Amino acid sequence: MKHIVENDVLRFPHPVLKSTKLRKGKIVEITVSGKVFVLFRDKNRTPRAVPAACPHRGANLIKGKLNKEREIVCGYHAWTINGEGQGYSPSVPKRTCKVHSLKTWEKHGFIWIANKDVPDEAFPDFTNKAFNLIGSFTQKFNAPLKVVLDNFGEIEHAFQVHKFIGASKSKLDTVTFSVKIEEEQTRGFSSCEYRKQPFFFRWSYGLKSGDYYHNDWVFRFKPLHGSYHNYWTDKPNTVVRSNEFIITTFMTPITATKVDLHVFVQMKIKNRILRLFSPIIRFFTLLVTKYEIWEDARIARFAPLNPEDGNNWKLTNLDKQIFHNRKKTDTIYYGKKEYTEAIYEFTE
């Protein structure tokens, strides 16, 4: 009989909330993989994270308030919990109990959390020095993690779901796709003749008729995230056009059927004339990215709530990365280990 042992995903840093949404004096509730926490800022405005359940009798600390020392005071029995992971009761103030506080980072416009013993070296390095971070946002998916993972591991849906990504339906014969499976990451490489776009889009990206669109990505699993390098070339692939951008998506599981996708967009503009219009082009790029990922979330709602293992699927060449991503998500991200329990037969 097989059993599966699963590790805590917070052994890796996860983005959980935009920094601007955690204001001074406020308590915010978050959920990661079914576990509920509260965030607040201490006296130094440093974000803190502790379990939402009061250590006394489990009351939700979201109903509490912050005192002058910027500690949470439970709204039920007035127990006080600080950001260092200590709690005490007003009836016995000299005695403290230990609370499982989390480690926090505030980087790239987001608050990130992980278990207390996670080293800073474990923080995911996803930025590219040649690019500028132009924005970040969160898109909620009402779908299981496997569905979200599959969506961002294939490009076949692009012509049907998206408006600015990939080829048009009539140019699907120009699509090429290959994968590279490595020990702790997977890579996808795609290119195609780019679909027709309005003049403003083509001008602002320095594109010409017949150009090819490229989307090269890497999936990593500590934590679960993908980075997508988007760029255009001429058909012979000898000239790279002016604008390139990298979309990095962190998939934070909330419940069995909900995922928060935290998105970071980096951009590079090489053309000197186009750089004069960089504020407009960056704003437009961020707007397009939000729209396209919103489209992903919209269509993902119609996927099955309990994704099957795929044994009965009819797959194409464009699906070849999906099951590698699923397997590495199980083994690396969740740290699942299977073991077999002996089954004893009893005779009378």
Q: Briefly note the CATH topology name of the largest domain.
A: Naphthalene 1,2-dioxygenase Alpha Subunit, Chain A, domain 1
**Helical/strand content category:** alpha+beta
Q: Which CATH architecture of the largest domain is right?
A: Alpha-Beta Complex
The first-level CATH class of the largest domain is given as: Alpha Beta
- Total domain units: 2
Strand content: 35-45%
The DSSP helix count reads: 6
The Rg value, from CA coordinates, equals 23 Å
Distance between the termini: 23 Å
Instruction: Please tally the β strands and state the result.
Output: 20
Q: Strands of the largest sheet, in order across it?
A: 13-19-18-17-16-15-14
Shape: elongated
Note the run of SSEs as H and E: EEEEEEEEEEEEEHHEEHEEEEHHHE
Biggest sheet: strands, sense, closure? Answer: 7 strands, antiparallel
Helix content: 10-25%
What's the quick description here?
This protein has 348 residues and is α+β, with helices and mostly antiparallel strands. The protein contains 6 helices and 20 strands.
Task: Walk me through the topology.
Elements: E1 2-5, E2 14-18, E3 28-32, E4 35-41, E5 47-51, E6 65-66, E7 72-73, E8 80-81, E9 86-89, E10 92-98, E11 103-107, E12 110-114, E13 132-141, H1 145-151, H2 158-161, E14 176-181, E15 185-193, H3 199-205, E16 212-221, E17 224-233, E18 243-255, E19 258-269, H4 272-275, H5 278-300, H6 322-333, E20 337-340
Antiparallel strand pairs: 1-20, 2-12, 3-4, 4-5, 6-7, 7-8, 8-9, 9-10, 11-12, 13-19, 14-15, 15-16, 16-17, 17-18, 18-19
